[in-house]
Design brief:
heterodimer, A: about 625 residues, B: about 525 residues, mainly beta, Immunoglobulin-like, seven-stranded mixed β-sheet, 36 strands, about 40% strand
């Protein structure tokens, strides 16, 4: 008996936990941790080439650009809240809050439609939102539009005017609010209100009127009040790439779920009233329990909790775009100058996933940590991976442009960095990182007028505004930024002799070295370019340039190229008083013996040599020759 | 209930009194003003609205006082009417619209004064010398239509065509590529005789075509034909409205290694055509489609008897290599050809102004509607003045043929000019101040053809241009707003099939070899937008 009593007590406590606010709070706390510590909204904020991520500017002009459009309030709110992503925890808090409100609004709507015992259904929109976040597509504006529509539905159902005329008036007023704030999501409002009237309150005429009235009102509004139509306005709220099939279905589910589930709940409660959920108060509950098979109800209740946990866990495993997350992580580290972290991350990534922009990040990190001529072949290399080439195409161009902008700026080629940054500005919007960069480039070029405008725009950014205002003040007192070592460094590297754009990367590096022979980055990239292009002869020719820098010895990969060149031509290479380290000579001899042992079977030679010589230029050279032959 | 109402009323009254007290505290008394210490120089203000001639119907010229101070006071006055007094702790001077309009309306031809006072913290009021502008007798056309975009390199994702009411600050979007696909490019909005009821503009991209508003109907026309696959570019309406002259260009962009403006453009190939508006026909003009010539920038004379355009010999045969060798030596002449609108007969070619004489390249000729003046750009080379810092505006007296550099130029590129319908105002795009960002400037052209000091288009927020990163391109003055809405334009672009030109003249075969491709004038290089992560 005592055991049974304890079990009953436990069951009651469990039931209270599940039905009370503690369980949803726990679920959303877990979601918050997941967003904060795993997805990390700061990755998105700091990812300059991410065009779906909105910019925000303080001041009336920016606000005014949203006001004339349906859905403008949701888009404006999204733009503002997105800026909070700069702080990982705050960004996670924003998404969690929106998800939590979606949960509450959904629960409210379902309650007004008669309620459901399966409380897991209330979580579905929130879970879909988190799944979309796992795809790194920033669906905040769309989620806010949906939230606005659901909150207005709740308001309508709460008001629930008895008088038909009053109900119609309330519908029109709230529909107008939904249409303006959420554009196309107003149809969700209309659909749920119609379901409510048709099935829950059995006012068929009113429900039918709502169904007819909604599109008419939308058409009238778009024709007489707004400048664009509802579809155009709705598209502005949606991240463009949500049109891909998998994401499209997720998005469609997010929007269609509430009307569809609401309809089913209302239908069930309308046609199977005996299965209506238990009323809240205890007296009513006992009477309902008498009519409800107790065992099935217990099973259902005990299953609900694991089901919910599963629902929260599924997005973790199924919906995360790991590849995109990796790119974002790389970019984040690179953007913050965390070069060692970039290289650590590179060690963890499977070789086949190292795309060109990531290779570019690796090369830059190697240069910044003084390892490029020593260790570049420790990582997979590709001739196109040194500096991404702009292909004049939007496909994949954002990331390429961002990389090019970074590399050319570091190297002192202001005009090409400016070119790439301007392309990004138009593709992705006036992101603070881009504004900062364009201001810097113009300061270096001595174009203070243009720099002032970029800093003016930056000063309106809610996160970086202070930095913009500070630099504007500095520009007044020191227009040339004479006291800024970075500006002076970049200025000293600039090409000053004008001509039409260089055709090849080699020409660019040589042009930069012509402008300033001590441009170490241009030199190391030029040598890396020759190494990757399998031109050891060019490496040998440029060894004399080592004297312009403070290398104590010939860097390892250059030594390897020189040895290779000497072996290919059978002639010595002028080392300008330097020498090749004996260990490099020994490694070359060992490598040659492996190659000779396998004769024409290059593949076998590469496989054997990979164990000890995978990080040498010899191995890359042989591998590349094989690839080119194929 | 009544009690609550009383409390609310009492609260409002106290709040109103407090606000009044604060506001009146900001305004200096008449005695403060009279006792202000004179400063013997003009105050620094931004934008530069000093010594200009302004239209009597322009929106208030709001400005920022760039003098140190904790309090500011500005008095706007003229010979007649009530002065406007503006006070406050902010250096931003926003002039109220209604009193401004009244003041300007009763003072046409008179001087307009800005008396600026500033009071440094803990100091006395200072009075600077009065800033004077002149209110012209002639109004400017009420609307300005322009293209807004970021500095354009290869890609264009945010582009719109907007119209601005110059009498207030109302700006509305006519066309935004967000509405029908960001890969679209649009430009060359052109109006008949400064009126917005007959207009055309070009759209490039998947829904390519020429949008034509004619007789109250908006249509999309495909001006390409089998023998002329190039889409039409720069346009000029014949004053009769019956035909439009077009250039068809193969424009390519290239970049400089070290220059303030790194962008540059080149016309690899170009020729002129004629479009019949009522007949929907495209006619080639054999004399203006020579394989060894580059013909562009058509402009009808005010009486419609001549078609002016820019011509240069084409020294290259390979139209694929960009830039071609000696691109910087290509200089355009100003040429004209007679035309009879009734018979469609063409006259003889005449060189109006030779680049050999000027040493510069001529582009963008535009006639004043009264036919007295012709304004054009001249730069070191090329026919894209907006990319040439050397580009200046020149004015020619059509009767005498004398020409000279206009007084409204700066050390940066001036381009995209347009006359008002009364031939008294010139709007142009200038890169002054930044070297990169085009802003619309207005200049009064007097009877003698003298251009008075230009002023930038006023904005409600006087600091607007300090942070605005888009360019104003191709500003066109029109007397009234464009009838069609953004929605209608977007629908026409995306949903309507382009009407092909119905026929073409047999002379079409005179089209030069290597005709420009269909994507000109600007290549639309995008395939799919936004595949930005992978």
């Amino acid at each position: 008996m005592r055991l049974t009593g304890a079990a009953t007590q436990t069951r009651r406590l469990y039931g209270q936990f599940i039905r009370g606010p503690a369980f949803p709070a726990l679920i959303f706390f877990a979601i918050f941790l997941y967003l904060w510590l795993y997805l990390d909204p700061a990755f998105l904020y700091n990812f300059m080439p991410f065009r779906q991520f909105p910019c925000f500017s303080t001041g009336m002009e920016f606000l005014k650009s949203y006001l004339p459009y349906q859905g403008g309030p949701a888009a404006y709110a999204s733009a503002f809240l997105s800026q909070l992503y700069n702080w990982s925890w705050l960004g996670a808090m924003v998404i969690t809050s929106v998800a939590g409100l979606l949960f509450l609004a959904t629960a409210g709507v379902f309650k007004y439609l008669g309620g459901t015992r399966v409380r897991a259904l209330h979580y579905v929109p929130a879970v879909l939102l988190i799944m979309l976040c796992g795809q790194f597509r920033h669906p905040l504006a769309a989620a806010l539009a949906l939230l606005a529509a659901l909150l207005l539905v709740n308001l309508y159902m709460w008001l629930a005017p008895r008088n038909g005329w009053l109900a119609a008036a309330a519908f029109v007023a709230l529909f107008a609010a939904a249409y303006y704030s959420a554009a196309g999501a107003c149809l969700i409002f209309a659909a749920l209100c119609a379901i409510f009237e048709l099935l829950s309150r059995r006012r068929f005429l009113l429900g039918a009127v709502f169904v007819v009235l909604a599109p008419i009102l939308a058409l009238l509004a778009e024709h007489y009040v707004f400048r664009i139509n509802t579809i155009q306005a709705s598209m502005r709220l949606l991240p463009p790439r949500l049109l891909t099939p998998s994401l499209g279905s997720l998005r469609a589910s997010l929007f269609l779920y509430c009307p569809a589930a609401g309809l089913l709940i209302a239908l069930r409660n309308r046609f199977f009233p005996r299965r209506a959920p238990a009323p809240e108060n205890q007296a009513d509950r006992s009477s309902v329990q008498a009519t409800w098979p107790g065992r099935w109800a217990r099973i259902q209740r005990s299953l609900e909790s694991p089901l919910l946990v599963l629902l929260a866990v599924i997005p973790l495993y199924c919906s995360v775009d790991a590849h995109t997350r990796r790119i974002l992580k790389f970019e984040y580290y690179s953007h913050h100058g965390m070069w060692r972290e970039v290289l650590q991350e590179a060690d963890r990534v499977p070789v086949e996933q190292l795309s060109t922009p990531l290779l570019c990040d690796i090369s830059r990190s190697l240069y910044q940590t003084d390892q490029l001529p020593e260790n570049m072949f420790r990582y997979v290399q590709d001739p196109d991976g040194l500096v991404p080439k702009f292909k004049g195409s939007a496909a994949s161009s954002c990331l390429f442009l961002a990389e090019a902008s970074d590399v050319w700026l570091d190297m002192g080629y202001m005009e090409l960095s400016e070119h790439s940054t301007h392309e990004l500005l138009d593709l992705t919007g006036e992101k603070p990182g881009l504004l900062q960069r364009l201001a810097l480039i113009n300061i270096v070029k001595g174009e203070t007028g243009a720099a002032r405008v970029f800093l003016g725009a930056l000063s309106k950014d809610p996160v970086y505004g202070e930095a913009g205002r500070r630099d504007l003040e500095r520009l007044k007192s020191d227009p040339g930024f004479a006291a800024d070592p970075e500006v002076q460094r970049l200025r000293s590297l600039r090409i000053t002799e004008d001509s039409p754009e260089y055709a090849t990367q080699e020409e660019i590096f040589l042009g930069l070295l012509k402008a300033n022979r001590k441009n170490r980055m241009a030199f190391e990239y030029l040598m890396a370019y020759y190494l990757l292009a399998c031109r050891p002869d060019k490496v040998a020719q440029n060894i004399s340039r080592l004297g312009d820098f403070e290398y104590r010895e010939i860097p390892r990969h250059y030594e390897e190229a020189i040895l290779l060149q000497a072996a290919i031509t059978g002639q010595g290479v002028d080392l300008h008083g330097r020498h090749i380290r004996p260990e490099t000579v020994k490694r070359f001899a060992d490598f040659c013996s492996i190659a000779e042992r396998h004769g024409d079977d290059v593949r076998a030679a590469l496989t054997e040599a990979a164990e000890h010589y995978r990080d040498t230029y010899f191995w890359y050279f042989l591998h590349r020759q094989r690839v080119l032959k194929q | 209930m009544r009690k609550r109402l009383l409390y609310a009323l009492a609260f409002c009254s106290v709040a109103a009194l407090a606000a009044g007290a604060i506001l009146s505290g900001c305004a200096p008394s008449a005695r403060d003003i009279a006792d202000a210490t004179p400063v013997n120089r003009l105050p620094h203000i931004r934008p530069d609205y000093a010594g200009c001639v302004i239209p009597p119907n322009i929106a208030p010229l709001n400005f920022l006082v760039e003098e140190p101070g904790a309090e500011y006071h500005v008095r706007v006055s003229s010979k007649r009417g009530e002065n406007i007094e503006i006070s406050g702790p902010a250096p931003s001077i926003v002039i109220p619209l209604k009193p401004w309009k009244k003041l300007l309306a009763v003072n046409r031809g008179e001087e307009l004064h800005f008396d600026v006072y500033a009071m440094p913290r803990g100091g006395r009021w200072q009075r600077f010398e009065s800033i004077s502008n002149t209110i012209a007798k002639e109004e400017i056309d009420g609307y300005l239509v322009y293209r807004l975009l970021h500095p354009l390199y290869n890609l264009h994702f945010q582009m719109s065509i907007a119209q601005r009411n110059l009498q207030d600050y109302d700006e509305s979007v006519l066309l935004d590529n967000d509405d029908f696909g960001v890969t679209h490019c649009m430009n060359c909005h052109t109006f008949l005789n400064n009126k917005s009821d007959n207009m055309l503009l070009q759209v490039r991209g998947p829904n390519q075509g020429m949008l034509l508003e004619h007789k109250g109907v908006l249509t999309k026309v495909d001006t390409r034909t089998k023998s002329n696959p190039g889409a039409s570019g720069f346009a000029s309406w014949h004053p009769s409205g019956r035909v439009v002259a077009f250039s068809v260009n193969k424009v390519r962009q290239f970049f400089h290694v070290a220059r303030t403006e790194v962008r540059d453009g080149i016309d690899m190939n170009s020729y002129l055509e004629l479009y019949g508006v009522d007949t929907n026909t495209m006619t080639s003009i054999p004399k203006l489609a020579q394989p060894n010539q580059l013909d562009t920038w058509p402009a009808w004379s005010a009486d419609g008897r001549y078609l002016y355009f820019c011509r240069a010999p084409r020294p290259w045969t390979n139209t694929e290599k960009v830039p071609p060798a000696n691109y910087e030596k290509v200089k355009y002449d100003l040429v004209r050809i007679g035309f009879d609108i009734e018979t469609g007969a063409w006259g003889e070619l005449e060189t109006v102004l030779s680049s050999k004489d000027t040493g510069l390249s001529i582009s963008l000729p535009r006639f004043s509607p009264d036919g007295r003046f012709l304004v054009f750009c001249m730069s070191d080379y090329s026919t894209f003045p907006t990319f040439q810092p050397s580009s200046d505006l020149y004015l020619m007296d059509v009767k005498s043929g004398r020409y000279g550099r206009m007084e409204c130029n700066s050390d940066q590129a001036e381009s995209w000019h347009c006359w008002s319908s009364n031939s008294r105002w010139l709007v142009f795009s200038s890169k002054r101040g930044t070297g990169m960002l085009n802003r619309p400037y207005f200049s009064y052209i007097d009877d003698d053809g003298k251009a008075h000091k230009p002023f930038v288009m006023p904005q409600k927020d006087p600091a607007f241009y300090d942070s605005f990163l888009k360019l104003y391109q191709l500003p066109e003055l029109v007397t009234g707003p464009v009838r069609a809405s953004e929605q209608e334009f977007a629908y026409t672009v995306s949903a309507l099939r382009a009407v092909p030109v119905e026929s073409e003249s047999p002379a079409a075969s005179a089209t030069p070899p290597g005709v420009p491709d269909a994507t000109g004038p600007w290549r639309a290089p995008m395939d799919q937008p936004g595949q930005d992560l992978h």
